[in-house]
Amino acid sequence: MKIFISESDRQSARRIALKNIARFFNIKNWETKTNEELHNELNSLKDKSAIQIICLLKEYFTAYDKWFEFYQKQKMIEEQKGEEINLNNVEQKELNDLINKREDTLNALQEEFEELQLSDYNRKTFGNDILGTLKK
Fold first, then answer.
1. I need a surface site. Which of 23, 26, 106, 126 has the fewest CB within 10 A?
2. From CA 104, how far away is CA 5, in angstroms rounded?
3. What is the pTM of this model?
4. Residue 67 contacts residue 99 (beta carbons within 8 Å)
5. CA-CA distance, 77 to 70, in Å (whole number)?
Protein backbone atom coordinates (compact mmCIF):
# COMPACT_ATOMS: atom_id res chain seq x y z
CA MET A 1 0.00 0.00 0.00
CA LYS A 2 1.73 3.15 -1.19
CA ILE A 3 0.92 6.13 0.99
CA PHE A 4 1.53 9.64 -0.26
CA ILE A 5 -0.56 11.77 2.12
CA SER A 6 1.39 14.10 4.39
CA GLU A 7 0.65 16.45 7.26
CA SER A 8 0.95 19.38 4.86
CA ASP A 9 -1.73 17.73 2.67
CA ARG A 10 -3.96 17.45 5.73
CA GLN A 11 -3.39 21.09 6.66
CA SER A 12 -4.04 22.16 3.08
CA ALA A 13 -7.43 20.39 3.06
CA ARG A 14 -8.30 22.16 6.31
CA ARG A 15 -7.11 25.48 4.92
CA ILE A 16 -9.36 25.29 1.86
CA ALA A 17 -12.46 24.58 3.95
CA LEU A 18 -11.65 27.20 6.58
CA LYS A 19 -10.88 29.94 4.04
CA ASN A 20 -14.07 29.38 2.04
CA ILE A 21 -16.23 29.49 5.13
CA ALA A 22 -14.37 32.41 6.71
CA ARG A 23 -14.73 34.42 3.50
CA PHE A 24 -18.47 33.75 3.41
CA PHE A 25 -18.95 34.84 7.03
CA ASN A 26 -16.85 37.98 6.42
CA ILE A 27 -14.01 37.15 8.79
CA LYS A 28 -11.61 40.08 8.47
CA ASN A 29 -8.18 39.34 7.01
CA TRP A 30 -9.07 35.68 6.48
CA GLU A 31 -6.39 35.44 3.79
CA THR A 32 -3.55 36.05 6.23
CA LYS A 33 -4.78 34.10 9.25
CA THR A 34 -3.59 30.68 10.28
CA ASN A 35 -5.87 27.66 10.32
CA GLU A 36 -6.06 27.89 14.09
CA GLU A 37 -6.97 31.59 14.02
CA LEU A 38 -9.68 30.98 11.42
CA HIS A 39 -11.01 28.02 13.36
CA ASN A 40 -11.18 30.07 16.57
CA GLU A 41 -12.93 32.99 14.89
CA LEU A 42 -15.45 30.76 13.18
CA ASN A 43 -16.17 29.02 16.49
CA SER A 44 -16.97 32.39 18.03
CA LEU A 45 -19.79 33.08 15.54
CA LYS A 46 -23.25 32.91 17.08
CA ASP A 47 -25.42 33.04 13.94
CA LYS A 48 -27.62 29.93 13.63
CA SER A 49 -26.38 29.16 10.10
CA ALA A 50 -22.77 29.61 11.16
CA ILE A 51 -23.23 27.22 14.07
CA GLN A 52 -24.66 24.57 11.73
CA ILE A 53 -21.78 24.97 9.26
CA ILE A 54 -19.19 24.85 12.06
CA CYS A 55 -20.77 21.67 13.42
CA LEU A 56 -20.54 20.03 9.98
CA LEU A 57 -16.99 21.34 9.56
CA LYS A 58 -15.97 19.70 12.85
CA GLU A 59 -17.55 16.42 11.75
CA TYR A 60 -15.62 16.60 8.48
CA PHE A 61 -12.34 17.39 10.24
CA THR A 62 -12.88 14.50 12.67
CA ALA A 63 -13.60 12.06 9.84
CA TYR A 64 -10.65 13.37 7.82
CA ASP A 65 -8.33 13.04 10.82
CA LYS A 66 -9.38 9.43 11.47
CA TRP A 67 -8.76 8.56 7.82
CA PHE A 68 -5.41 10.39 7.94
CA GLU A 69 -4.38 8.59 11.15
CA PHE A 70 -5.15 5.23 9.54
CA TYR A 71 -2.79 6.08 6.68
CA GLN A 72 -0.09 7.33 9.02
CA LYS A 73 -0.29 4.10 11.02
CA GLN A 74 0.05 2.02 7.85
CA LYS A 75 2.92 4.21 6.66
CA MET A 76 4.76 3.66 9.95
CA ILE A 77 4.29 -0.12 9.65
CA GLU A 78 5.65 -0.07 6.10
CA GLU A 79 8.65 1.99 7.16
CA GLN A 80 9.39 -0.38 10.04
CA LYS A 81 9.16 -3.44 7.77
CA GLY A 82 10.96 -1.71 4.92
CA GLU A 83 8.44 -2.92 2.39
CA GLU A 84 5.02 -2.18 1.00
CA ILE A 85 2.23 -4.10 2.72
CA ASN A 86 -1.22 -5.15 1.60
CA LEU A 87 -4.21 -4.62 3.83
CA ASN A 88 -6.06 -7.64 5.13
CA ASN A 89 -9.86 -7.82 4.82
CA VAL A 90 -10.50 -6.21 8.21
CA GLU A 91 -8.08 -3.35 7.50
CA GLN A 92 -9.54 -2.85 4.02
CA LYS A 93 -13.06 -2.64 5.47
CA GLU A 94 -11.86 -0.15 8.08
CA LEU A 95 -10.23 1.95 5.37
CA ASN A 96 -13.37 1.84 3.21
CA ASP A 97 -15.51 2.87 6.20
CA LEU A 98 -13.15 5.76 6.98
CA ILE A 99 -13.19 6.93 3.36
CA ASN A 100 -16.99 6.73 3.23
CA LYS A 101 -17.32 8.70 6.48
CA ARG A 102 -14.88 11.33 5.25
CA GLU A 103 -16.74 11.69 1.95
CA ASP A 104 -20.18 11.68 3.58
CA THR A 105 -19.23 14.43 6.02
CA LEU A 106 -17.61 16.49 3.26
CA ASN A 107 -20.71 16.13 1.08
CA ALA A 108 -22.98 17.15 3.97
CA LEU A 109 -20.81 20.21 4.60
CA GLN A 110 -20.76 21.16 0.92
CA GLU A 111 -24.53 20.74 0.55
CA GLU A 112 -25.28 22.86 3.61
CA PHE A 113 -22.79 25.51 2.51
CA GLU A 114 -24.26 25.64 -1.00
CA GLU A 115 -27.75 26.00 0.48
CA LEU A 116 -26.52 28.78 2.75
CA GLN A 117 -24.87 30.58 -0.18
CA LEU A 118 -28.05 30.30 -2.23
CA SER A 119 -30.15 31.65 0.65
CA ASP A 120 -27.72 34.54 1.08
CA TYR A 121 -27.85 35.30 -2.65
CA ASN A 122 -31.65 35.24 -2.60
CA ARG A 123 -31.80 37.53 0.43
CA LYS A 124 -29.39 40.02 -1.12
CA THR A 125 -31.03 39.87 -4.55
CA PHE A 126 -34.72 39.62 -3.72
CA GLY A 127 -34.95 40.77 -0.11
CA ASN A 128 -37.89 39.23 1.67
CA ASP A 129 -39.88 38.70 -1.51
CA ILE A 130 -39.81 34.91 -1.74
CA LEU A 131 -41.60 34.82 -5.10
CA GLY A 132 -38.40 35.39 -7.04
CA THR A 133 -36.04 33.23 -5.05
CA LEU A 134 -33.91 30.57 -6.65
CA LYS A 135 -34.19 27.00 -5.47
CA LYS A 136 -31.63 24.24 -5.68
1. 26
2. 20
3. 0.82
4. yes
5. 11
